[in-house]
Amino acid sequence: MAPFWRRSKETAKERLRLILIHDRIELSPGKMEELKDDLREVFKKHLNVKTEDFDISVSRKKDSMALEADIPLRDSR
Amino acid sequence: MGKSIVITSGKGGVGKTTTTANIGMALAIMGRSVVLIDADIGLRNLDVVMGLENRIVYDLVDVVEERCRMDQALIKDKRYRNLMLLPAAQTRDKTAVQQEQIAGLVEELREEFDYVLIDSPAGIEQGFRNAIAGAEEAVIVTTPEVSAVRDADRIIGMLEAEGLHDPRVIINRIRQDMVKRGDMMDIDDMIEILAINLLGIVPDDEDIIVSTNKGEPIVLNNKSRTGEAFRNIARRIEGEELPMLNTGREKIVQKIKRMIGIS
Ligand SMILES: Nc1ncnc2c1ncn2[C@@H]1O[C@H](COP(=O)(O)OP(=O)(O)O)[C@@H](O)[C@H]1O
Ligand SMILES: [Mg+2]
User: Fold this and answer.
1) Which residues of B57-80 are buried (b: 16+ CB within 10 A; e: fewer)?
2) Which among A74, B18, B41, B136 is least buried, having the fewest CB atoms inside 10 angstroms?
3) Measured between alpha carbons, how far is B61 from B42 in angstroms, rounded to an integer?
4) DSSP states of A9-59 as a string?
């Protein structure tokens, strides 16, 4: 049997998970990128953000979903 | 009052009609009175799968438009007299029926039958809305493929919006060889991702085509494992708690236990 990372069921599962997240929040992966870019600019305006590490993602809890942003800040000291 | 259940899906061709025919037949074998409604207007199929196509005189639209009485349109099954079919019309007119009309029909039939099973068209158009009107419960059929499961998720959302909560899912066309190779998504993963209850698992089986060729639903074959899968689904609908057919790989321990006869 193929090693687990090459079994197509694992690929299917991961793809399905992502597809459903975007379907459910009605935001395509492309639009999500745009949102991320916009957010990055907004934060940059007010804060010293490490823009290269800026990331947003959708997390799924039991009954709800949330947009989580990871906004690493530069320490200017 | 009987129970009304719609059999639906997002993606087409996943096995709704096959499932409706087999669950209906299985419930009839168990002694329940059952009526099957073919709500796939314009694409009548359930009659063929049931082997009842030669008996059709009137159809659902004739009843709705009062061209005949309900009892004139209902077709009695050849094998089980407690099983009936209300065939779909073959009209191209998409506005041939209204949601309220179907709901009324279902309500009327619930008075007389233990189960009203509604075979729905695929998709999210008006036909789908018609089919779910009047249903108290929903069963979603999917195959273990990304596209079909994705569409199932859309349907779950839509059912919810229409007030049909907690639908249950049947995963159809599981292939044992592909499960073993790791090329078919795990049932548990699909259930978890969809956040839905599992009603049953049905193997992919070429005998389904043979049974459709003959117009004899596979539950009529006592020796068929696929028939057993459908019989188990019918029993779960009746409220029994049954383990799922083992479609995954048997754990070594279980295998040894089975071989030495302690399981
Ligand atoms: N478990 C199965 N194994 C093999 N073939 C199947 C199975 N379930 C359905 N099929 C076949 O798939 C096709 C579509 O099934 P059908 O019940 O008409 O789907 P739907 O009503 O969802 O469009 C049919 O040719 C049917 O014989
Ligand atoms: Mg069909």
Assistant:
1) ebbbbbbbeeeeebeebbbebeeb
2) A74
3) 11
4) HHHHHHHHHHHHHHHHHT--HHHHHHHHHHHHHHHHHHS-B-GGG-EEEEE
Report how far residue B121's alpha carbon sits from residue A4's, in angstroms, rounded to the nearest whole number: 37
pLDDT profile of chain A (77 residues), mean per 10: 77 94 92 93 90 86 84 86
Total tally of structural domains belonging to chain A: 1
Supply the range of the domain harboring residue A47: 30-77
Provide the strand spans (E) within chain B: 3-8, 34-38, 75-76, 83-86, 115-119, 137-142, 168-174, 197-203
Find tokens 């070429």 and name the residue: B206
Chain B residues near residue A24 by CB distance under 8 angstroms:
153, 157
Residue A36 covered by a domain: yes
A76 falls within a domain: yes
Instruction: For chain B, list the domains and their CATH numbers.
Output: 3-259 (3.40.50.300)
- What are B29's two structure tokens? 């074998």
- Please write the tens of the pLDDT for every residue from B17-41: 999 999 999 999 999 999 999 999 9
ipTM of this predicted structure? 0.82
* Binary contact (B185, A23; C-beta < 8 A): no
Contact B182 A16 (CB under 8 A): no
pTM value is 0.89
Tens of pLDDT, residues B39-51: 999 999 999 999 9
Residues in chain A: 77
Name which of A9, A20, A23 is nearest B183 (Cβ-Cβ). A9
The answer to whether residue A42 is domain-embedded is yes
Rounded Cα distance, B131 and B161, in Å:
15
- The answer to whether residue A12 neighbours chain B at the CB level (below 8 Å) is yes
| Angle (deg, nearest 10), helices A8-25 and B187-194 | 10
Residue type, B17: T
